[in-house]
Specification:
The structure is a single chain. The protein is mainly beta. The protein contains two helices and 13 strands; from the N terminus they run E-E-H-E-E-E-E-E-E-H-E-E-E-E-E. The chain starts with 5 loop residues before the first strand and ends in a 5-residue tail after the last strand.
């Protein structure tokens, strides 16, 4: 089921666009549920394997328009100090001045500027990603996993997606050369998003 779906119901050039009522009903404001969402990354280490990590503290909102995807938006704040790769020493290095400098720049943020449907349940959200004091455009391809009402009566939607970035574009340039050639940490980083968001109750 596509989140945004329009049907051409008239044969003439003056055709109007009809919206599936079930999909239009998803229109509204949503809060990302951090307990059931994950924002993470994957990066090549020592040229031979991947290190994966995630950020345990994040918050965000979605504004979904079930009639017109271009009117949808997303806002996400990630607390850098919550990074977790499973090794405390590595996490400490990541939050230090060599990488994120979390004491000076505690948040990584994303603010969308455009959304579009690529086909079926696949969407692309483009916006501004800010890391440290650098803001650059980023496009995230997302798959819509559907909607459901949970056991507590919350209306939920789910998305999963990813985006590749070059960390050097955001000033994350620390590295170490290997004796066998190459570097300790790749420049390319894959960001991953697994989002569950709860619809806000309508205001009276």
């Amino acid at each position: 089921m596509a989140l945004f779906n329009r049907k051409n119901t008239a044969p003439s050039t003056t055709a109007t666009l009809a919206v599936d009522p079930a999909l239009a009903a998803l229109t509204g404001s949503y809060t990302i549920d951090p307990a059931h969402s994950s924002i993470g990354f994957q990066v090549r280490h020592a040229m031979v394997t991947n290190v994966r990590g995630s950020f345990g503290e994040h918050e965000g909102t979605l504004q979904l328009d079930g009639s017109d995807p271009s009117r949808s938006s997303a806002s996400i704040d990630v607390r850098i100090a919550s990074v977790d790769t499973g090794i405390a020493d590595r996490d400490g290095h990541l939050v230090s001045g060599d990488f994120f400098d979390a004491e000076k720049f505690p948040l990584m943020t994303f603010r969308s500027t455009h959304a579009e449907q690529l086909g079926g349940d696949t969407y692309r959200v483009t916006g501004d990603l800010t890391i440290k004091d650098v803001t650059r455009p980023l496009s995230i391809d997302l798959e819509f996993h559907g909607s459901a009402t949970d056991v507590y009566g919350n209306e939920r939607v789910g998305f999963e997606g990813s985006a590749d970035i070059l960390r050097s574009d955001w000033g994350l340039t620390w590295n170490a050369a290997l004796e066998t050639g190459g570097v300790m940490v790749s420049d390319k980083v894959k960001l991953t998003f697994d989002i569950s968001a709860i619809k806000a109750a309508p205001q009276a």
